[in-house]
Amino acid sequence: MEKQNVSLRGKDILALKDFSAEEIRLVLDTAKEMKQIIHRDIKKVPTLRGKSIVTLFYEPSTRTRTSFELAGKYLGADVVNITSGTSSIVKGESLRDTLYTVSAMGVDAIVMRSKAEGAAEYASRVVDPVIINAGDGAHAHPSQGLLNLFTIEEHKGHLAGLKVAIIGDVLHSRVARSDMYAMRTMGMEVHIAGPKTLLPRFLYEEPGIIVHERIEDAIKDADVIEVLRIQLERMKGGLFPTTREYARIFGLNPERLKLAKDDVLVLHPGPMNKGWEISPFVAYSDNSAIQEEVQNGVAVRMALFTLVLTGGKAE
Ligand code: CP
């Protein structure tokens, strides 16, 4: 795949639906080089020396916020974290004014997480720094989608032609929306299953997305299974009877795992509700790459910073 003419320099990273296969390939290849830096004894290169990055998180996060912070620091950037509970946001400062304030300090990139769908896209229109969407409501979580692809490719050696089953609460899942578009773009066969109440209508009209009512049909002979978190905090009530019932019908347990290929790779964006959408036996089995996803998250975020802020590669 040609990549000479592809550049992400200055591009706001808002949603993978907008990404071409060449752009995704550029990120994955760059992340491969970045991963070598994480394995060095001294994890520090000067690629982003003199650049400053702010992470602006209006929702809780462990993996995404920490890995963006470490990614920036490993590349030599100055990184400052702002969370809604410890900033002037608690005094009622608006998103626009917060963005103006942060931009006025001369930052080069803002990594944003928000409950509001479209918040990152809005930020990209009102301020100059590059905006990286770290999750906006149920809309998109592009760096999570990219780290999933990276993890799959590390294990399988390729992406095109692989069967992936995405299981669970798609309705509230920005991860599913990022994964399914990027996986389709990269030539994967995308199957989805979950309770009907948690499968948005648009899925049935998406070309290249196959929707199943039963998890068993989706995971049969799958190369990859992505289990989604049940997002109780976003549910307005009554979308499935009980978590026990959910586990019985849609949970990924060892019995169901046998329906997939022997070397099926199991992914979950975290945090996991173990015993609900995924059994602990599956989560910690040899098929699981859930912890690897976390490490790969740092490499992919290093790649994104390098590509959007310099267009090039780390030393
Ligand atoms: N996968 C993910 O977004 O996790 P956090 O909410 O911990 O960042």
Note the main attributes of this structure.
315 residues, five-stranded parallel sheet, 37% helix, binds phosphoric acid mono(formamide)ester
Descriptive account of the structure:
The protein starts with 20 loop residues before the first helix and ends in a 6-residue tail after the last helix. Helix content is 37%, strand content 15%. By secondary structure, it is of the alpha/beta class. Helix 2 (63-74) links the parallel strand 1 and strand 2. Helix 1 packs across helix 11 and helix 5 packs across helix 6 (174-185). The strands form two sheets. It has a five-stranded parallel β-sheet with strand order 7-6-5-8-9. Strands 2-1-3-4 form a four-stranded parallel β-sheet, with helices on both faces. The chain has helices spanning 21-38, 63-74, 95-104, 119-126, 142-156, 174-185, 215-219, 243-250, 254-257, 280-283, 290-309, and strands at 52-57, 78-83, 109-114, 130-136, 163-167, 189-193, 209-212, 224-227, 265-267. The protein folds into two domains: 3-139 and 294-309, Aspartate/ornithine carbamoyltransferase (Rossmann fold), CATH 3.40.50; 142-293, Rossmann fold (3-Layer(aba) Sandwich). Bound molecules: phosphoric acid mono(formamide)ester.
